[in-house]
Amino acid sequence: MTKEKLLLTIATHGYNVGFGAKKNFASHDIVVKLPGWIGFITLAIGILQLGYTSLGCNKELSATIILVSVASLYLSAYNARVQDYDKEGIRLTTLFNRLRDLYYTVQAKEDDEFVEEQEKLNIILNELYSTTISKQVFMSQWFAHFKFFYEMQIDWVNEQLHFRFFKDKLPNSIKIFLLILIFIAIAITSYEYFFNI
């Protein structure tokens, strides 16, 4: 394998491992922190409704609070795995750092023999595939994108993969969600325009 191909391979695995680490940390953060925020927000809304009768207690607000509470119940199902997400995130971050070190070793090497480096890569990949947590928390993908692209040092991965904002850094599900919102806004505006003439 040529030096350029090996660097690209290591960077590609670095992206997968790093993103996997951040996805586990995102699931951990969502399960640990979000229920507290949900509880605080719903409590604050309830107190505001009691204290300020001028706000009124409408059905939409009550329905929203109920939906938020259901989301909190959904998250409680993941409480048993909280420590697993944290341990897996740490394990994958360690592998990510080992891949980074291997990348820089290959990059600095002058000759074209990379047998030892390929063996190290195979050892790291075997450790990677030994255990994984496939079931992640809803919305962890979005949060993991933020954590990976904006909190993690990924210059060495970007050196090979050349990440772009719209293509790589913005999750596809957000793109679809935004398109649906735009379509709904256009539909509502068109409906109001044509039926108010």
Model description:
By secondary structure, this protein is mostly helical. It has one domain (3-163). The chain is built from eight helices and no strands. It has helices spanning 3-51, 59-76, 82-108, 115-130, 140-151, 155-161, 165-169, 172-195. Helix 1 (3-51) crosses helix 6 (155-161) and helix 3 (82-108) packs antiparallel against helix 4. The chain is elongated. The model has no long low-confidence stretch (mean pLDDT 87).
Number of helices: 8
- Can you give the mean pLDDT? 87
For the termini, the CA-CA separation is: 69 Å
Low-pLDDT runs of 5+ residues are none
Strand content: under 5%
Largest sheet: none
Which class of secondary structure composition applies to the elements?
A: mainly alpha
Shape: elongated
> Level of helix content?
over 70%
Radius of gyration: 23 Å
Features:
197 residues, single chain, mainly alpha, elongated
Overview in brief:
The chain is an all-alpha fold. It has helices at 3-51, 59-76, 82-108, 115-130, 140-151, 155-161, 165-169, 172-195.
